[in-house]
Write a structure and sequence with these properties.
By secondary structure, the chain is an all-alpha fold. The chain is built from 15 helices and two strands. A hairpin with a 5-residue loop joins β1 and β2. α1 crosses α3 and α7 runs antiparallel to α8. The longest helix is centred in the first third of the chain and has 66 residues.
Length: about 425
């Protein structure tokens, strides 16, 4: 470090060159992921306001709840199955056929649970229940649920691509499917802006994701007939990691999807639309995490404790956080008017509140990956217990009093407390 006459330290030339070299190195390793997620972010920026304007707050809120319920159930059984398969691949066996079968099984279980739930939606309040009574179990909803079953095959493909360090193919899978969904939404909602057409567009996405995933698996691994012995061996191999990951995922699903369901129950569907739009505006933060996650897993899969996480945190994550913080605080209200209209200006405050929680997630997402590869993923689940309990307690009281802003506050506080707990575990168990 060099020192100015006033005593302020500035980075020396060698240190600056090292920092730039590190940033270039990370960029070169993640440029395909950055490209795909940037494309996805641009598509989302165009898609969200288009959908919002076509459907309006009420219909948008209704479709958000339909998808949230289905996602809550499907993700409970198969979300992040790719992590369990990735750990199995480290044992030196492919098990691709067995993994595809296992994902199909979890998808079918979720499908039948969804059918049972939507057939008995009287547990919901009158405004949502009245809507469901008209829309429930239509052909478009059943088609959507079927597409979610097929989509589970992508978990096998993602694990295989990360294991083989084929991040370009991984990026291709992610971007292509999102682009297909975007194209379908534009065409279908232009002709008829209805909930049914939105679900059909989502179905096209799910089928494309799953089928393309099977194609990529077939390209790298031979898919053979199901063998009971191999299937049993695969189940035994992933049993421990799958249980831990499922426990972790199920606990975390409460605030991830139940926020919109709870808001619809205690307030109304229009409030759901306002809140979900605010959540969509901070979604680019999730795209950054999705960009770095597969790359980080590929770095950690062999020697998890040799990765220089402090350098990555200071030189990559902190500058991104500062840039986004300035952008949302200065231009947030203008973003709402650009991407929607004055009907959604009430999304501004929830958006800023959600930014605090999501930015904390961005700064600390790497802790989960270190816990996973150090066989400590159960501590992430414990953190999610804190996350879920704090969210539920705060959401019930703050949601009634402050509507969308109250739910956003509950979610952000819960997320910050979860990440604080995980950081303490990281300091104690790993560092």
């Amino acid at each position: 470090m060099a020192c100015t006459g006033s005593g302020v330290q500035i980075p020396s030339a060698p240190q600056t060159n090292m920092n730039l070299k590190y940033i270039r190195e990370i960029f070169n390793q993640t440029k395909d992921l950055i490209g795909s997620q940037s494309g996805i972010a641009i598509i989302s920026i165009i898609q969200v306001p288009y959908v919002v304007k076509q459907l309006g707050p009420s219909k948008y809120g209704a479709v958000v709840i339909l998808i949230a319920v289905a996602s809550l159930i499907f993700r409970a059984t198969h979300s992040n199955n790719s992590d369990a398969h990735l750990l199995a691949l480290k044992e030196g066996r492919s098990f691709s056929t067995e993994s595809l079968f296992f994902n199909l099984l979890t998808g079918l279980i979720s499908f039948f649970i969804c059918i049972l739930f939507f057939s008995n939606s009287i547990i919901l309040n009158s405004s949502i229940g009245d809507y469901f009574s008209a829309e429930i179990l239509t052909s478009s909803l059943i088609l959507y649920l079927c597409s979610r079953v097929v989509q589970t095959f992508s978990e096998t493909a993602k694990a295989l691509l990360i294991y083989k360090n084929e991040l370009r193919k991984y990026s291709f899978l992610e971007f292509t499917t999102v682009f297909v969904r975007f194209f379908a939404i534009i065409i279908l909602l232009f002709n008829n802006p209805s909930v049914e057409n939105f679900l059909i567009a989502q179905s096209i996405y799910g089928f494309t994701y799953g089928i393309l995933g099977i194609f990529l698996v077939y390209k790298y691994e031979k898919i053979i007939n199901i063998n009971f012995v191999n299937l049993k061996e695969y189940f035994e191999l992933i049993k421990s990691s799958y249980k831990k990951i499922r426990y972790d995922q199920i606990i975390g699903l409460v605030p991830q999807h139940f926020d919109v369901i709870l808001l619809g129950i205690i307030i109304d569907i229009q409030a759901v639309g306002i809140y979900q739009f605010a959540k969509r505006l901070v979604e680019p933060i999730n795209y950054l995490v999705v960009t770095f996650n597969p790359w980080l897993q590929s770095q950690l899969k062999t020697k998890p404790n040799e990765f220089k996480i402090n350098t990555f945190f200071k030189q990559i994550l902190v500058p991104i956080f500062i840039f986004l913080g300035l952008m949302y605080s200065i231009f947030g209200d203008k973003l709402i008017l650009i991407f929607a209209n004055s009907d959604f200006l009430n999304s501004y405050q929830p958006m800023l509140i959600l930014f605090m929680g999501f930015s904390t997630y961005l700064l600390t997402f790497w802790i989960r990956q270190l816990l996973l590869f150090n066989d400590l993923i159960e501590y992430h689940a414990y953190g999610r217990i804190i996350y879920s309990l704090v969210f539920l307690v705060l959401a019930i009281f703050l949601g009634k009093a402050y509507s969308a802003s109250g739910i956003a506050t509950a979610l952000s506080i819960a997320m910050i407390l979860q990440k604080a707990f995980e950081y303490l575990i990281y300091r104690k168990k790993i560092k």
